[in-house]
Structures are given as structure tokens and as C-alpha cells.
Amino acid sequence: MLKKIYICLCFFFVSGILYEISLLTGCFFSCMPVPKHFLTPEQVLNLGKSIIFLETTERLEPPPLVSCSVESAARIYQDRPVILFMKGLTNDTVLDSNSSYAAFSLLSSMKNVFLFPLQMETIFQETPLLQWYNEVDPEEEKNWVHVSSDASRLALIWKYGGIYMDTDVISIRPIPEGSFLAAQKSRFSSNGIFGFPAHHKFIWDCMENFVLKYNGNIWGNQGPFLMTRMLKTICNLTDFEGIEDHSCQNISFLNPQRFYPIPYPAWGRYYDVWDKNPDFNHSYALHLWNFMNRNRKAVVAGSNTLAEKLYKTYCPTTYEDLIKNAELRDFSSYEDSV
């Protein structure tokens, strides 16, 4: 009995400390008095302003581009929690900075990066998405990986606020906006990156429309097309001129140059060698269009491609551990087998 009382007192004491230091801007991750693996998803999300990534497949080893996306965000937003939710993780999965999964070990070692199980039924509680989730049959959905991701990101941003990013987005400088959508082109919104405070009406309306207009057979119907049609209900969308952003109903609709300076028809340019590399001075992050990369072009050490230079600059640990050193390990293994 005394032991239980002691544990409860310790819990409340630690919780109080966490709350107090979370009020100190930029102090949380350098002052955290307990190992971060003791924190629950809700405790971290309640700190606010999280950067959220999702992995809705079952894989446990994030590929280099996912690792680069998370690492770059962790470096750009050092005073904010960066969370990768992974469907393949469970509460019983024991993986940490000593994991045999190289990327998992790398990301776990970063002070402001958290890797948590993606538990959709919990996420959808108290949202319009719960009934849809209970009724839908994932086995009958041809786009389930994408559709479930579209739903999860809406629910998480609605409940906790922050910024959602796809796992092929490399952060290069902080986004100064609080409530924003990213234009993929004029009059068309992406859902690959967006940010809102908790309980924003626009996100709630998106969840309601997600259910009302649900059609999982049409790729993007629950994602960019959803964001675009909901934005059109409250804003008169016009073409962008130059690099200006648009604003309506206190929502910033950010210029395509902010995240999509290389449009999707030219996605392969990221894997080309450029005579003169672009400076991306008007961008906050870069979307590498991994969905288009069906031939699985990859970053190769020494290739001098634009993507390799981005890795070296914005996710150097991923580059060293998962690109450069991985190739050395593969070469050593080949020599040993000869």
C-alpha cells in the first residue's frame, strides 16, 4: 500500500515539474528531468505546437527519406516536440536508441523526437471520424494507407494543434504561420503540410466533410481535394502572383514556392545534378514527391544530386548513418563474401 502511495506521489511530483518547465520557452528538452520514453503520447502532445509525422504502413524501419524528414524538422524546431506515429509499433514493442533498426535508433537518440504507436481508434475518439472508422472495412479499401493517414492527421491536429508534415518533406527554415494551408498550385491546396491551433473550426469542418463525402476509391478525395473544397467554401481563391501568400478568414494560404518550388511533374529534378543549385530562399520546406517516385530513385553518396546536397545540409546524421555508412557496410559485406 505504501509503495502504491509512493508511486502516485512521484507521478504527481514529476507531472508538476514537467508542467512548470514546459512554461519556459525552449527549456523543455534541455531541462527535462525524466527520460523521454516515460512520457505518453498525450503528455507530449499536450505541450502544444508539435510537429507530427505519420507512418500508416506496418514497417518499423523508416527509410532514409522518412528519417531525413523527421531529423530536419527536429533540427529546425529544436524547442518543439517532433512526433512520428507508427502503425507498426505497439505498446509492447521494445525499440530504443540501441535498436537494430538503424533509422529507429538514430531518431530515438534525438532529444526532441518521439516515436509512438499509431492507435487510430484512440485518435478518433470524440471526433466525427470515429463512426466512419468503426464502419469502414480496411480490407475493402484500395487506398487505405493514404485514407487512414488523411483521417489521422486531421484528428491529431484538431485535438492537439501543431503542424502536420508528410514523411517526404524536408524542413529548411521555421514556418512563421500559426493557421495555414499549403498551396500546391494556384487555387489548389495540399494536405501534405498544414498547421492549426487545437480545436480550430476549419479542421472540424474538414472531418465532417471527410465522412459526408467519403469515397475511398478516388485517390486524394479525402486529402488535397477535401482541403481544397473546404477552403473554397470560405474563401474566394485566386491565382498567385509572384511569391505573395493569400489570407482569408485568418487562415494563410501559402504560396506554392513555400513548399513546392519544384512542382510534381518535375519531381525527378531532386535526383538530378544541377549546374547551379537553387537557393530556395522563399521556401520553408521542400516536398520531394515520394508518391511519384515509383522507380525508387534514391540518394547515393557522392552522386552530387540536389537531394544528396539537401540531405548533407538538413539531415546530416541521416546522411552519414543511413546513406554514406550504409554503403560502406554493404561494400564491406560484399568483400567479405568474395
TrEMBL record:
An annotated GO cellular component: Golgi membrane
Molecular function terms from GO: acetylglucosaminyltransferase activity
InterPro entries: A1-4-GlycosylTfrase_dom, Glycosyltransf_32, GlycoTrfase_DXD_sugar-bd_CS, Nucleotide-diphossugar_trans
Cell compartment(s), UniProt: Golgi apparatus membrane
Keywords: Glycosyltransferase, Golgi apparatus, Membrane, Transferase
Membrane topology: Single-pass type II membrane protein
Residue ranges of domain Alpha 1,4-glycosyltransferase in the record: 196-320
GO biological process terms, semicolon-separated: epithelial cell proliferation; negative regulation of epithelial cell proliferation; protein O-linked glycosylation
Domain of life: Eukaryota
Family note: Belongs to the glycosyltransferase 32 family.
Protein name: Alpha-1,4-N-acetylglucosaminyltransferase
UniProt gene name: A4GNT
